[in-house]
Amino acid sequence: SPALMGSLSAFRFRMFDLIDQRVDSGDGLVHYVNVDSATSVGAALELSARFPRGLWIHGGASLQRAEDDVSGERLSNSPEWKVNLKLSAPFAGRGRGAIEVLHEAGRDTVVSTRTDAFLLVNATLTWELATFPVCIQLQARNLLDEDYALPGGVEHRQAAIPQDGRALTLRLELRF
């Protein structure tokens, strides 16, 4: 409908001759090799709604299993599920506020450990000035200062790389 849109998709795909990093046992250096194939199977659901007066809500969720076709092991850095919710609304004339919530499963690392699941909240305020072609935006990423990490590669010393905590960004955009 004009105000509501949804989609559901299921997928299965195979990837061949993937490029991966391997450590050479002779000299200890990392090099790139083509590896066997991998398969990913999953489903994704999205729903968006636009309401009168500019309110917009979007949500989505996905489930997947990606694994090496030879060993049957789950691929590293590939979350089993993700969920997101976004809400955006106008305020104070030419302003707009948005909040985004992301929740993601842990991921396997290249050294057979696993990162923790995490929840991120991001918020953005945007103002379009009426008298000047200027847009001002204030954004807070990782608003709740979530302590989380993402898998590293074989070239990293640590299995998981800690991500940034709360970060504030002020952006001024001049349009002409």
Q: What does this molecule look like?
A:
The chain has 176 residues and is mainly beta. It is 0% helix and 59% strand. The strands form three sheets. Strands 1-4-5-6-7-8-9-12 form an eight-stranded antiparallel beta sheet, with no helix packed on it. The chain is globular, with a radius of gyration of 21 Å. The model has no long low-confidence stretch (mean pLDDT 92).
Produce a short descriptive summary:
The chain is globular and about 65 Å long.
Our measurement of the CA-to-CA distance between the termini, rounded to an integer number of angstroms, reads: 36 Å
Strand-pairing-aware structural class: mainly beta
Main sheet: strand order: 1-4-5-6-7-8-9-12
Secondary structure tally: strands: 12
**Coarse morphology:** globular
SS strand fraction: over 45%
User: What summary fits the major beta sheet?
Assistant: 8 strands, antiparallel
Computed Rg: 21 Å
Mean pLDDT, to the nearest integer, reads: 92
In sequence order, what are the helices and strands, one letter per element? EEEEEEEEEEEE
What percentage of residues falls in helices of 4 or more residues?
Answer: under 10%
Number of H- or I-type helical stretches? 0
Low-confidence stretches: none
